[in-house]
């Protein structure tokens, strides 16, 4: 299991090293409507110390840095962190950059007032370990905001969306369900105090090219979407004309929890 997890994390590092700049400019990551809600949901205060896990292009720390004393941006991939730093450094001097594994954070217990993680946990091989680490480094009363793609509860839809994501991105592990997340939160001592189910529309050409490495890989993703059943096409709002796919819609969960 440990070797398998290490292999997954190596794939994540390879993927994000190659596509670091794409994640900074990605419209999905850089312009999501959730970004403006983050400071409000967390009720950030000027004295707070915040942590963003798997920061990617640094979009979350960009949103929260003006509202806190210090913000730690962490990522497993050096090149991703370096790219985020290059884009953010001219704007904010209170962001500190740390290479870190989300499932084994290099921080002491009860360190942070607020922790965030956005559009990343579907790359984590052991999400339950990640949630326990979040709870460990949070101060009592501290808040954790999770935002990520999720799998529908219906098995057929779950299997489809995870097959689709894996075809497009070899570093994808699994989009987990809300019920799975709730179990891990409870086990870690985190109580969900606010949540919102969201629909996220992807412009297909940009989405599929962000992580694929060949036309052959893109063709496999095309085929899966175009051959989907009517129920699946309707649920994920797959929009196409002929063999050209225009967009699709994925489920996302935005959940705020608190450490008692």
Could you explain how this protein is built, in words?
InterPro entries: Methyltransf_11 (IPR013216), SAM-dependent_MTases_sf (IPR029063). This is Ubiquinone/menaquinone biosynthesis C-methylase UbiE. Keywords: Ubiquinone. It comes from Peribacillus huizhouensis. With 260 residues, the protein is of the alpha/beta class. The protein has one domain: 3-Layer(aba) Sandwich (Rossmann fold), CATH 3.40.50. It is 42% helix and 26% strand. Strands 1, 2, 3, 4, 5, 6, 7 and 8 form an 8-stranded mixed beta sheet that branches. Helix 7 links the parallel strand 4 and strand 5. It is globular and about 55 Å long. The two termini are 32 Å apart. 41% of the residues are buried. The mean pLDDT is 92.
């Amino acid at each position: 299991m440990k070797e398998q997890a290490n292999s997954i994390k190596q794939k994540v590092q390879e993927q994000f090293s190659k596509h670091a700049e794409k994640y900074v400019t990605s419209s999905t990551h850089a312009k999501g409507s959730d970004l403006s809600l983050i400071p409000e949901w967390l009720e950030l205060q000027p004295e707070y110390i915040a942590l963003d896990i798997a920061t990617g292009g640094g979009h979350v720390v960009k949103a929260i840095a003006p509202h806190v004393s210090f913000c730690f941006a962490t990522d497993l991939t050096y090149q991703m962190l370096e790219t985020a730093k290059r884009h953010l450094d001219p704007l904010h001097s209170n962001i500190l950059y740390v290479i870190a594994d989300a499932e084994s954070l290099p921080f002491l217990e009860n360190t942070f007032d607020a922790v965030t993680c956005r559009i990343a946990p579907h790359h984590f091989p052991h999400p339950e370990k990640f949630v326990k680490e979040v709870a460990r480094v949070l101060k009592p009363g501290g808040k954790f905001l999770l935002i990520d793609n999720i799998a529908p509860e219906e098995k057929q839809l779950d299997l489809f969306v995870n097959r689709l994501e894996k075809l497009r991105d070899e570093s994808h592990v699994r989009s987990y369900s809300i019920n799975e997340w709730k179990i891990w939160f409870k086990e870690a001592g985190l109580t969900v105090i606010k949540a919102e189910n969201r629909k996220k529309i992807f412009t297909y050409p940009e989405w599929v090219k962000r992580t694929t490495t060949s036309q052959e890989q893109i063709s496999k993703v095309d085929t899966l979407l175009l051959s989907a059943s009517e129920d699946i096409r309707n649920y994920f709002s797959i929009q196409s004309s002929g063999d050209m796919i225009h967009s699709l819609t994925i489920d996302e969960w935005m959940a705020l929890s608190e450490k008692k």
